[in-house]
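Box 3.1. Reading complex inputs
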Amino acid sequence: MSLTIYNTLTRKKEPFTTIEPSKVRMYVCGVTVYDYCHLGHARSYIVWDTVRRYLQWRGYDVRYVQNFTDIDDKIIRRSQEENLPWQDITHKYIDAYLEDLGRLNVKPADAYPKATEVIPQIIDFIKRLIDQGYAYAADGDVYYAVEKFPTYGKLSGRKLDQMEAGASGRVDEEAETKKRHPLDFALWKAAKPGEPEWQSPWGLGRPGWHIECSAMVQELLGDRIDIHTGGEDLVFPHHENEIAQSEAALAKPLATFWMHNGFVKIRGDKMSKSLKNFTTIRSLLENTDAMVVRLFVLQAYYRSPIDFTDEAIAAAENSWKTLEEAVLASAYFKSLPDWSNAQSEALDEESVKRFNEAMDDDFNTPIALSVLFELAKELRRQRNLIVHTGKPDLPTTQIHQKFQTLIELMTTLGLKMLQPSALENAISAEVSLSITDDEIEALIQQRQEARKAKNFAESDRIRNELQEKGITLIDDKGGITRWHRNSEQ
RNA sequence: GGCGGCAUAGCCAAGUGGUAAGGCAAGGGUCUGCAAAACCUUCACCCCCAGUUCGAAUCUGGGUGCCGCCUCCA
């Protein structure tokens, strides 16, 4: 089976193809940097990061470019409000973006172009559109003439005459008078006094929002790319306009596959900055493990909406614990006599097969995760058997294989593997700091005597005392008490 | 007004013609002084109505409800 991807452009799943064999050129629409990122952004970039990781795991050489929009009305407004140069605003929030998404284990892009770094390319692009008759200058602004592009609306499935201009109620009156058609959009905006400005053939001004992506894609990835992604709110107008710009100027399809992720909802509504109902990534991470957030996102299919609730996060927390415990179980597997002989790269083929089938079907992470949970539960079971009965009921080579597979698949989904060596250090530190084996044995002996005398208050006291020192006691049949040091911190 | 999406157990969420994955939570049993683990076990008439079919959560038509987009937006 081969990878299929849902393409917004055609509204169906299509077999994945690349322009160049085994190379993927991928462009991800990034954020406008005037504020901290919220959970909605987190979802989007976790999803695209996972797509990238999976393509790499399947052997593709992926070039991944993601932009920062570092000049626009909101940035200007923010800089005026805070009385700071706009560069201070954008630098601050770019740093914050990299930090927040890094914590979610989103890999850095191969390039992070900024709008203000490609002004010459943007100007060239606009000139080209004007020369070819797709754009017109109007009193310091430049607009794209949507009526000149016959297939305008093909991505979002609309026709010009169906759209009600200004239906969203956010129309700039002044700009309307300059436009030839209400749907025409700005490629270049004249600067008002005091605003950041760049020299252009049309006077001092700044680029419109959509043109930067067309220019950057061409600059960094070429005239055509394989995958272009973003949140579903970007389908119209942003991506529609990118298509109009790039395909008019270059006369070839911009992207083969257009992918869009569903929203994060909160209490049934879209989470967004304008609704002021967002939770920023950094506030969420104050008391939630980053991998819990990642798991919360991946437990849904990327095109479906997900509802952000305390219950959902709590459930993800428990789910993550299951995976974590399975990874931590390696501390116990290491004590198996033939563990070191079992070391090999071999994976559990059946699990890998099912994982790939799920991911090949338009990145169906909920199903892919079910494979991980099955592995994790089996590993946890083996760990428990070791702790409670002294030996597992699977051959060590199989345990090793399942363990190796779990780690590999978790890594592919960007679920950060805990370093077993760090764990060992933690455990050995605990051992050296707390209590020796002999002391434990002595206490257990005392407790046995208390139990024989039916002095359960005393026996429970000893159990609790040891528990506080990180030692768990297990009473087996035949009056034997086993114990182990707790592996979880 | 136009375009689009969604509706599956207490919660989250797969499943696109063959008789309901997975996760979370909950309950019962064996065992136990208590506890832990293990093992066994319980938990969905798939929003409604009609149709197509040997067979539908899955296809068709009609409803109902919720949501998104229509130049701020991941």
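In summary: The domain at 315-418 of chain A is CATH 1.20.120.640 (Four Helix Bundle (Hemerythrin (Met), subunit A)).
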